[in-house]
Structures are given as structure tokens and as C-alpha cells.
From TrEMBL:
UniProt keyword annotation of Coiled coil present: yes
Compositional bias per record (Basic and acidic residues), positions renumbered to this chain: 13-23
PROSITE patterns, per database record: MADF
Native source organism of the sequence: Daphnia galeata
Protein name as annotated: MADF domain-containing protein
Span of domain MADF: 405-477
Sequence segments annotated as region (Disordered): 1-23
Stored PANTHER family: TRANSPOSASE-RELATED
Length: 477
């Protein structure tokens, strides 16, 4: 912006004040209206006069006007630092002759500082932003993180980001917790200590609900070995990047020594694109940086399962049927247990984008409503957490111990699983059996019957998969 220098004022005032006024930024009055001047902060507040320009609001509701420092040097050093940070430049760039020539030609009245000044300023700003992030996380109640490790130029690093909701605005926020150098061997215990050191620094041990990462063997072992006795959540990766499976072809057949593809291969490629399209869309949704949360997981996987089922029944898909079967089987193994997770279900049904639309049957809708109602009453203080959990534990809290107990008691009543018995078709006998089993397990008979049917179906599917002849594809279902 242009700068004005009033020579008459500079002669009558103190030399220091005159030099300060020489750096005063001139704001065009036809575009901005002066609201007030803060002498303590040595700045002025302006309001934009352009049509359609919306004035931002502060937390207390008051308007947030444009703040311009009277000393242009104050503005310059901030922009210099932003320039270095945004483009990840070395700090000695401010001492380069070309940079000095550029700045002196654009604003000859400015005095450039050396590298030492910007190093101290960078450290000061870093600790200020770190303190602001810690204060924001201190006011939050729940958070989730993403984690990744990589190697570049024979040096390994670990980075972690965090996502949480602002308690006042209820808007999603995210920040980078750190990018740390990994020294020594990359074993699971080294990774665990490094992750926990980041959690200790920002005091987020009790706030973490989920952690998303990839399927690296060392990362998975880090959660498997240390998850139960550390601050690491018992939840790791979602899915790998399936795009790596997409084959790339070149038109230069002589260089790659490829023959022309056959009609069958061409048909396979077309089917492959059709099958992998919904998978790719779901990956884009779940791996997005913004406007996505844990509530997107179950509805997105449900959509993918429905889409793959429709492709399975599509008669035009011939060559990629084994691929569809494999994808459905892997989704069942990897994500089936998550559909019984209370926190994931609450995150999905409380999301206005999905609500209850992603649930398949009326029984799931009913149980989801009970879950949401109990959680609401618990948060309002009408029910204790233990009382509210008891109302829907039978549907959504089936642990491995309860499943084993259900199977153990169920084996004492062959009428519920052995079709050759005459009692197998007697609804009254089977009802009494489920009533006794439910009493032994400690849940409702209807939920016991539903869980038994799911376990039975899962057993049949896995048994069929193991009994398939060698060389055949996975089981059809």
C-alpha cells in the first residue's frame, strides 16, 4: 500500500516520533472507513466499504474490524515470517542479496533484520501458537488423531494431527500436534514412547477416542502390544489406499513390449473400473481432510456393502465376480465388529447427514433410538452411565466373553441349532430355551436370539470358506 510522509509534521515532532509517522500506512478512504485508533497497540481499526463484504464477529458477538499497525515495519516482519513458513524456506533467505534487493525496491524505507532476529521471532511465535493449541485442547472433551510415519533421505519421521469440536461454535477444528524425528530402530516400543510423549506434552490422554493410521505392521504391533497399558486407543487403521491396485497402461507398446489387449481383457478392465468406482469414492470420503468425522465410517461402509451387493447381482459383470466376492468378504472381516461399537453408532446416528437412514432393518432402527435416548438422558443427568448402558448392552455391547458364554450355554440346547431334531421346529420349545439362555447370559431373550442367529450365520460363512477347494475363489453369499 502507498505510504504518506508529512514533512511539516516530521520537523515539529520528536525525531523518533517523526520516524514512526513516516512508516504509517495510508489507507484509502474511498474503500475503508476509520472506526477508531488504539494508541496502546499503535494501530487503527477500519471497516471495509465494499458491497457484500461481511464483517466477522468476535466470540462476544462484537464486530471484528481490520486492524492495521501504524508502523509498517511491524506489518513487514510478520509477512516476512509468514513467507518463510508457508514456503518452508531456510531462515538465511532474509540475508540473500536477491531478497534484499527485492524488498528495498518495493519498500526502500524498510530496514531488513538479520537471520538471528527471525530465528528468535520464529521460536517466540511457535511457543505462542503451541500455548494457544494447548488452551484450546484443554477446553475440549473429546478428540481423535491421525498418525503416520515415513522415511525421507535416510531419515525417519512421525507426524500426528488432531481433530476436535469447538465447545462454543460446535465447528470441527484440526491442528498438527507434531512432526518428530525417529531415532534408533523403528520398533513398536520406540513408536509407542514417541506417540505417548506427544500425548503427554499436550495433555490429551483422557480425551482421545479414536486414532486413525495405516496398516503398517509396526504400527499395528504398537497398538496391539501397548494399547491396553498405555494411552493409545485400541483402534488402528481403516483401509489402505486401494488406488495402488489400479493398473496403469501406456500407449507406447514398443517400449513396454506389450501386445494389444484381447477383447476379454478389455471387458475385464471395464468391469474393474465399474467395481472399483464405489470403493474409490468411499476412500475419498473417509480420507478427506475436512468435513469428515468418525460418524461417516459406518454409513459409508454400509453404502459400499449395498453397492457391492447390487454389482454382485448384476448379470453384465462376468469377469470381476471373484473380485466383488473378495471385497465383500474382506469388508465383513474388517468392519463387521465395528457395527456393534456404541461410540461409532452414536457418532453416525447423531450426524444430521445420516441419522437413521443407513440402518437396514426396523430392529436396528429401534435399538439405535434406544441407544440415543439413553445417552441423551445420561448426559442430562437423568440416568447414571451404568444404568443407561444396561438398557442397550444386549444389542450393542456383545464382548468376546459374552459371546463365548452365549455359545457355551447355547450348546446345552440342541433344539436351537440342530435341524434334525423334532424340537427344532417347535417355536415354544425354542422360545423357552432362549429364555433360559438369556437369563444365564444376563440380557433380553430377543437380543439373545438375534445374536445367536448372527453367530450362526458367521460360522456357516467361515466354514464354507474353509471348505472351498484349493484354487477357487472365496465363498459366495
Amino acid at each position: 500500500m502507498p505510504h504518506s510522509i508529512d514533512e511539516s509534521e516530521s520537523e515539529s515532532q520528536d525525531p523518533k516520533e517523526a520516524s514512526g509517522n513516516q512508516k504509517r500506512v495510508e489507507i484509502p478512504s474511498e474503500f475503508f472507513k476509520l472506526i477508531s485508533e488504539d494508541k496502546d497497540k499503535n494501530c487503527r481499526l477500519f471497516k471495509c466499504l465494499f458491497e457484500g463484504c461481511i464483517v466477522k464477529k468476535k466470540h462476544d458477538g462484537s464486530p471484528k474490524y481490520l486492524s492495521v499497525c501504524n508502523n509498517s515495519r511491524s506489518n513487514a516482519k510478520r509477512h516476512y515470517l509468514n513467507f518463510i513458513i508457508v514456503h518452508i524456506l531456510p531462515l538465511n533467505v532474509v540475508e540473500k542479496p536477491g531478497f534484499k534487493m527485492l524488498v528495498s525496491s518495493l519498500a526502500p524505507q524498510l530496514e531488513l533484520r538479520d537471520r538471528k532476529f527471525f530465528t528468535e521471532l520464529l521460536e517466540k511465535k511457535f511457543y505462542e501458537r503451541q500455548a494457544q493449541l494447548k488452551a484450546a485442547l484443554r477446553n475440549s472433551t473429546d478428540a481423535a488423531t491421525t498418525l503416520d510415519a515415513w522415511t525421507c533421505r535416510r531419515r525417519s519421521y512421525l507426524g500426528e494431527t488432531i481433530q476436535w469440536f469447538d465447545q462454543k461454535t460446535l465447528k470441527g477444528r484440526n491442528a498438527c500436534l507434531g512432526c518428530r524425528r525417529i531415532t534408533g530402530r523403528h520398533t513398536y516400543d520406540v513408536l509407542a514412547k514417541l506417540i505417548e510423549s506427544i500425548h503427554d506434552e499436550f495433555q490429551i490422554k483422557d480425551k482421545l477416542r479414536r486414532m486413525t493410521t495405516d496398516n503398517g505392521s509396526k504400527i499395528k504391533k504398537c497398538f496391539r502390544e501397548n494399547g491396553a497399558k498405555s494411552t493409545l486407543p485400541k483402534f488402528e487403521a481403516q483401509m489402505n489406499d486401494v488406488r495402488e491396485e489400479i493398473q496403469q497402461f501406456s500407449d507406447d507398446e514398443e517400449e513396454l513390449k506389450l501386445e494389444f489387449i484381447t477383447p476379454i481383457e478389455e471387458q475385464f478392465l471395464k468391469e474393474y473400473v465399474i467395481v472399483m468406482k464405489p470403493v474409490s469414492k468411499c476412500l475419498d470420503i473417509l480420507q478427506a481432510d475436512k468435513n469428515v468425522g468418525m460418524g461417516f465410517l459406518l454409513p459409508t461402509i454400509s453404502f459400499l456393502k449395498i453397492k457391492l451387493k447390487s454389482l454382485k447381482e448384476n448379470a453384465s459383470i462376468i469377469h470381476c465376480q471373484p473380485l466383488i466376492t473378495t471385497k465383500r468378504f474382506l469388508l465383513l472381516i474388517r468392519f463387521e465388529a465395528m457395527f456393534d461399537d456404541n461410540e461409532l453408532i452414536l457418532a453416525a446416528i447423531s450426524n444430521p447427514k445420516f441419522k437413521l437412514a443407513w440402518l437396514d432393518n426396523k430392529e436396528d432402527v429401534r435399538c439405535a433410538k434406544v441407544l440415543l435416548t439413553c445417552e441423551y438422558k445420561r448426559l442430562r443427568g437423568a440416568l447414571e452411565e451404568s444404568d443407561s448402558m444396561a438398557l442397550f448392552d444386549a444389542k450393542f455391547r456383545w464382548s468376546l466373553d459374552l459371546e463365548e458364554k452365549l455359545i457355551m450355554f447355547g450348546m446345552d440346547y440342541p433344539c436351537i441349532f440342530y435341524p434334525k431334531l423334532t424340537e427344532y421346529r417347535n417355536a415354544e420349545v425354542k422360545g423357552n430355551a432362549f429364555l433360559k439362555i438369556a437369563k444365564s447370559v444376563g440380557c433380553e431373550p430377543s437380543e439373545t436370539k438375534l445374536k445367536w442367529a448372527k453367530l450362526k450365520d458367521k460360522f456357516v460363512r467361515e466354514r464354507n470358506a474353509y471348505n472351498k477347494p484349493s484354487g477357487s475363489s472365496l465363498f459366495e453369499y
